[in-house]
Amino acid sequence: MPFGLVTAWKRRLAKSSDQNDPWKYKSLEYWQLDDRRPSAKRRQRSSVYTLKEMEEATSSFGDENLLGKGGFGRVYKGTLSSGEVVAIKKMELPSFKSAEGDREREFRVEVDILSRLEHPNLVSLIGYCADGKHRFLVYEFMQHGNLEDHLNGISEMKMDWSQRLKVALGAAKGLDYLHSGSALGIPIVHRDFKSTNILLNSSFEAKVTILG
Ligand SMILES: Nc1ncnc2c1ncn2[C@@H]1O[C@H](COP(=O)(O)OP(=O)(O)O)[C@@H](O)[C@H]1O
Ligand SMILES: [Mg+2]
């Protein structure tokens, strides 16, 4: 057999055994993720809220509504006047006055990008508040909190293997949507993919959250 054919044959053989090896990298097509461009129901645009609405929704940011704290500030459970239950991220003021311009620019860019993204495995941005110096992001509420608490056994509920697999696949689909660039035409790199940024809804569907 000519040398070129032997190498081609060896390459093909290696490729087929790679497909059966669970530890070998496989392209996205292999996993047949069929909902990469879902026709999910879109919110027309993000709603804008006042500081008063944010205070009313969270009983003035009462500790009983505190869901957690991250790098950007505290997150509260809130109920909007429509009755919709949401998660409200209260962005902390930067410690230096000179950093205020940067924070403002980041906030605007984040709101602009987040409000254009829509996928069943991405936590949706419902709206925002920019009232005076106060900045808030309003997200869909995820009843079962973050994945880390479940993996660490903090939550009472134990996840079986099929639920864990569903969570892993859901988070992968959310990331794939960002990386494929289908929303904005350019790929978005998450840069902070971790178990506290994978949230679970009432039916344990995983959704990736971005920004903090
Ligand atoms: N949309 C949400 N629904 C329910 N809980 C949330 C939501 N967003 C954040 N949280 C909770 O608030 C915590 C803090 O969130 P965040 O500010 O994003 O910081 P981090 O990602 O470092 O935990 C999360 O770990 C999660 O438990
Ligand atoms: Mg987070």
Automatic annotation (TrEMBL):
Residues 61-212 form the Protein kinase domain. This is Protein kinase domain-containing protein. It comes from the Eukaryota. The keyword ATP-binding applies. InterPro entries: Kinase-like_dom_sf (IPR011009), Prot_kinase_dom (IPR000719), Protein_kinase_ATP_BS (IPR017441), Ser/Thr_kinase_AS (IPR008271). The keyword Nucleotide-binding applies. Keywords: ATP-binding, Kinase, Nucleotide-binding, Serine/threonine-protein kinase, Transferase. It comes from Papaver nudicaule. ATP binds at residue 90. One of its GO terms (molecular function) is ATP binding.
